[in-house]
Design a protein that fits this description.
Dna Ligase, domain 1, 8 helices, D-amino Acid Aminotransferase, Chain A, domain 1, single chain, 13 strands, four-stranded parallel beta sheet, alpha+beta
């Protein structure tokens, strides 16, 4: 029996799980009886871990997502896998930031400009440029307000000019799709914020980026995500550098939501067939 929490997937039993609610006994029993469990992109850590405990075949593989959450977790994953990425200072909270810079005479890698990113902000949200040291206090004040809401954590990342272009590589099981997102805003190169889509420029760099993502996914098990990469404008041969992983990503560059759902359904069928599950 195939159990699915995703209405796009082929299944014998469809279930609806509400957000971060606890997994019910009925859901647990259904997953224990399943030969495969299909989850949706927005599933909670609790539902994912319950699915993995109940069934050996679970799609997507979100182990990296929940073991290395947020931008802080992704930085730790890049470090653990020796994946090239911009120099990054992890700050779990303001106190942690001040502990790290105290006695170092500042941030422990070549200075400004820096990119400030809140830990749990996605798809270009919560990202700011610190052109120089005078900008940093206002960003730290924002972090202070962030902590008052019960949230915390940010990263400071070396700013690397990329000519206003970032490569988005989308992985949907065995299929990859790559395109440039192009913007006059060199910090938030995001289609949701008006960035253009370019599928054809610099095909050699696109292929290099796709190959890097495939190697990364082979080592981490990730099989549904959108990766953001850059190639340094000064020397593209030094790229790609990984910026972040988006487990819930925009679809405009794929041809829209309907096209994405078609691809996803096809790849889930392939994933099931590869496991001999009908």
């Amino acid at each position: 029996m195939i159990v699915s929490f995703n209405p796009c997937a082929p299944a014998d039993l469809y279930l609806v799980h509400k957000g971060s609610a606890s997994v019910t006994e009925d859901e647990t029993e259904a997953m224990r009886s399943a030969s495969a469990v299909i989850l949706h992109q927005g599933c909670s850590a609790g539902l994912y871990r319950a699915a993995r405990e109940c069934c050996k075949n679970v799609f997507p593989d979100f182990s990296a997502r929940f073991n290395y959450p947020g931008k802080i977790g992704q930085t730790e994953l890049f470090r653990a896998t020796e994946t090239p990425h911009p120099d990054t200072l992890i700050c779990r909270n303001l106190e942690h930031f001040h502990e790290q810079v105290k006695g170092r005479h500042g941030i422990p890698f070549p200075g400004f400009p820096l990119v400030f990113k809140f830990d749990r902000a996605d798809e270009g949200m919560g990202v700011f440029l610190a052109e120089n040291e005078s900008r940093l206090p206002s960003l730290l004040d924002m972090a202070k307000e962030w902590e008052r809401t019960g949230q915390s954590g940010f990263i400071l990342q070396k700013y690397i000019p990329s000519g206003g272009k970032a490569l988005r590589v989308v992985v949907i099981y065995k299929q990859t799709f790559a395109y440039w997102r192009v913007s006059n805003d060199s910090i938030c190169i995001n289609a949701a914020k008006g960035a253009g889509i370019d599928h054809s420029s610099h095909p050699e760099l696109i292929q290099k980026g796709v190959n890097a993502v495939k190697r990364f996914c082979a080592g981490t098990g990730i099989n549904l995500a959108g990766f953001d990469l850059i190639f340094p404008e000064a020397n593209p041969a030094d790229g790609p550098l990984f910026l972040e992983i988006n487990y819930y990503f925009g679809r405009r560059g794929l041809g829209g939501s309907n096209r994405y759902y078609e691809i996803l359904a096809r790849e889930i069928k392939r994933w099931l067939n590869d496991r001999g599950i009908k």
